Amino acid sequence: MATESLTRAPDVEVLAKLEFPIVTYEVSREKIKEYVAAIGDRNPLHNDPVAAREAGCRDIIAPPTFAAVFTSMPFRRALGDPEWVARSTINPARLLHGEQRYDFAQPIHPGDRLLVQSIVERVEEKKGLILIYVASRVTDDRGEHVLDGAMTVVLRP
Amino acid sequence: MIVGDRVPELHRRIDLSTLVRYAGASGDFNPIHYDGAYAEAAGLDGVIGHGMLAMALVSEAVTDWVQDSRRVQSVSARFTRPYRVGDVLTVSGAVVGARDGAYELSLKCVNQDDVEIIGSASATVLPDERSDDG
Fold first, then answer.
1. Which of A57, A79, B117, B134 has a CB 3.0–4.6 Å from the CB of A52, allowing a cystine?
2. Smallest Cα distance from A16 to chain B, Å
């Protein structure tokens, strides 16, 4: 039914009530390595366990924007569900990333088990565009706050 | 670190392989970032790069400079214009203030024609306990 949503106009009231699946994410050393290599980051704390320990970390730490790997998952999983997309009034091909912010409470290490919860904070219409503000809160398996994400998604006409 | 300090510039050329690697590493497989026909059908003028990769480069310019990325308290970016395969991105920035015990950095990311890809970015960075006064 995904094709049906392509002909249905975005509905601000529906968008404001969208819900996303809660995601659990276990950080792996290999995923950090892959991310660091892809962005060309040579910081010793992100690459070398020995250097990281010398600096007082218990292991390598992920670069700050590694947060994108898991904070995007609730929205992305939703977009991978044709029924969710059909209900959402979103045409995924019209989505763009407008703004992103992260506020960090603690560094991320290999083996961390994270819980990612996202909500729609508000929806605005501006100059023919629809802006969807999505807030994500990330906690670890002891319930400690790890970081907050704030994403603005732009829905083009 | 003092107000007025400039963040050393970071330069990076973007190839299609850069975007494909970032897609794999980030999990963002939106075809607008690697499939030209799909991007055009979506009303774009060809493949565009991931905003989050440009933001990663902004953050990297900061962490390359301060080295200890635990000092970075927040990072934000506004994606102004798309960038494309073959573009060379440059990140620049400066320390613009100090508030609540942290430095405020203002940054941007432009392409080789000085077009703003991320017109407005910011980061807050804690002082280096070993050498900064705070």
1. A57
2. 22
